[in-house]
C-alpha cells in the first residue's frame, strides 16, 4: 500500500505543462464541460473507488488517518474480481467543507493519473505532493476559465468554482501571474475553453 503525505516543492516548468495537458485530457475523457467540478463523478468515470473513512474498518481507518487527515489512495488487488483497482479514501468527518473534500479527491486523482502509485512510485515524495497539489488546484480552477468567467476577486472564485476562501486566494494569485504572462492562449488552453464552450 502506498500512502502519500502532503508537502511539496517547486516543479520544472515543463512538468507543469505536462500536468496541465493531462488535466485537459481528463476533462475530455470524463466529459466535463462545466464548473464547479464534481470530483466524485470524475473518479467514478475513471473507475476509481471512492471510499469515506467512516466506512472503513477501524484498523484501516486508523491507517488512513495516520497517512493523512484529509485522504489517501492505493493500488489494491480485489480478490473478488481478481483485478487491481485504485482506491481513494477521504475524510468525511462532520464539519469538513465540501470544497475541501473535492480538492482531496482531485489531489488523489492526480496521484493516480500521474503514475505515483505505480510507474513513478519511487519519485521523491515532495515532488509527488507538489504534482498532486497542482493537479487538484489547476483542475478545479484553471486560470483561462477564471478569466472567461470575468472573476475580479477571490470571492468570485468561491462562487463559480465552489472552492474555499483559502484556496480562492491561492487560485486568484495564480490567475494574476497567468495574466502577467500575457493573454496569448496556448493550444491546450484553447482546447480546454472549447470543451467548456467559451472559446
Helices and strands, with pairings:
Blueprint: H1 13-29, H2 39-45, E1 49-52, H3 58-67, E2 71-78, E3 83-90, H4 98-113, H5 125-140, H6 143-148, H7 154-161, H8 165-180, H9 187-195
Parallel strand pairs: 1-3
Antiparallel strand pairs: 2-3
Provide a compact summary of the structure.
By secondary structure, this protein is mainly α. It contains 9 helices and 3 strands, in the order H-H-E-H-E-E-H-H-H-H-H-H. Helix 1 packs parallel to helix 9.
Overall mean pLDDT stands at: 93
C-alpha Rg (nearest Å): 17 Å
Overall geometry: globular
Helix content: 40-55%
Largest sheet: 3 strands, mixed
- Major sheet: arrangement of strands: 1-3-2
* Number of helical stretches of at least 4 residues: 9
What proportion of the residues form beta strands (DSSP E)? 5-15%
What is the chain-wise order of helices and strands?
HHEHEEHHHHHH
Number of strands: 3
- End-to-end Cα distance: 42 Å
Return residue spans where pLDDT drops below 50 for at least 5 consecutive residues: 1-7
Structural class label: mainly alpha
Amino acid at each position: 500500500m502506498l500512502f502519500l503525505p502532503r508537502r511539496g516543492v517547486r516543479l520544472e516548468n515543463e512538468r507543469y505543462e505536462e500536468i496541465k495537458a493531462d488535466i485537459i485530457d481528463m476533462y475530455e475523457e470524463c466529459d466535463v464541460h462545466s464548473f464547479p467540478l464534481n470530483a466524485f463523478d470524475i473518479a467514478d468515470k475513471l473507475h476509481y473507488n471512492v471510499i469515506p473513512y467512516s466506512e472503513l474498518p477501524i484498523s484501516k481507518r486508523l491507517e488512513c488517518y495516520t497517512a493523512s487527515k484529509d485522504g489517501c489512495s492505493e493500488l489494491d488487488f480485489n480478490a473478488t474480481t481478481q483485478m487491481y483497482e485504485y482506491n481513494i479514501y477521504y475524510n468525511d468527518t462532520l464539519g469538513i467543507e465540501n470544497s475541501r473534500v473535492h480538492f482531496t479527491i482531485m489531489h488523489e486523482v492526480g496521484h493516480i493519473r500521474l503514475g505515483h502509485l505505480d510507474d513513478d512510485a519511487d519519485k521523491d515524495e515532495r515532488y509527488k505532493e507538489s504534482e498532486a497539489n497542482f493537479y487538484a488546484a489547476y483542475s478545479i480552477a484553471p486560470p483561462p476559465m477564471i478569466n472567461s468567467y470575468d472573476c475580479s476577486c477571490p470571492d468570485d472564485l468561491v462562487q463559480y468554482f465552489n472552492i474555499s476562501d483559502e484556496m480562492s486566494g491561492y487560485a486568484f494569485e495564480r490567475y494574476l501571474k497567468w495574466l502577467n504572462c500575457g493573454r496569448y492562449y496556448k493550444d491546450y488552453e484553447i482546447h480546454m475553453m472549447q470543451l467548456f464552450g467559451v472559446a
